[in-house]
Design brief:
By secondary structure, this protein is an all-alpha fold. 59% of the residues lie in helices and 0% in strands. It is built from five helices and no strands. Helix 1 runs antiparallel to helix 3 and helix 1 packs antiparallel against helix 5.
Length: 106
């Protein structure tokens, strides 16, 4: 399976895990909150919001447009710290770690 297809499957899995743990929102945050220039929009969004409204859509868009995917990234340390007391953290981390691993491999 190619990297883009594998990534899309993992993004869908992440969305499902967020939904199963009641982190999926129906109302989008404000444009101002989504326009943060800080890493992970840490100043305006919770981690689960960043995953839903920025991370998943941005990578999905890149895949849909056949754009080059990032060479490497690692989001699990942020997710682990930001959601350390969150319900469902092990399931969420399992998926983010798979994504991190996918983008570590050549």
């Amino acid at each position: 399976m190619d990297k883009a297809r594998h990534c899309q499957q993992l993004l869908e899995k992440l969305a499902t895990v967020l939904q199963e743990n009641d982190y999926w929102e129906t109302e989008q945050p404000s444009i101002e909150a989504l326009s943060s220039s800080q890493p992970f929009a840490i100043d305006t969004l919770r981690c689960d919001q960043w995953l839903q409204w920025i991370f998943i859509p941005k990578l999905s868009h890149m895949i849909a447009m056949n754009m080059a995917l990032p060479a490497a990234f690692e989001i699990s340390p942020y997710v682990e710290e930001a959601m350390k007391d969150a319900k469902g953290l092990p399931a969420i981390l399992a998926v983010t770690r798979e994504l991190d691993q996918l983008f570590k491999s050549k």
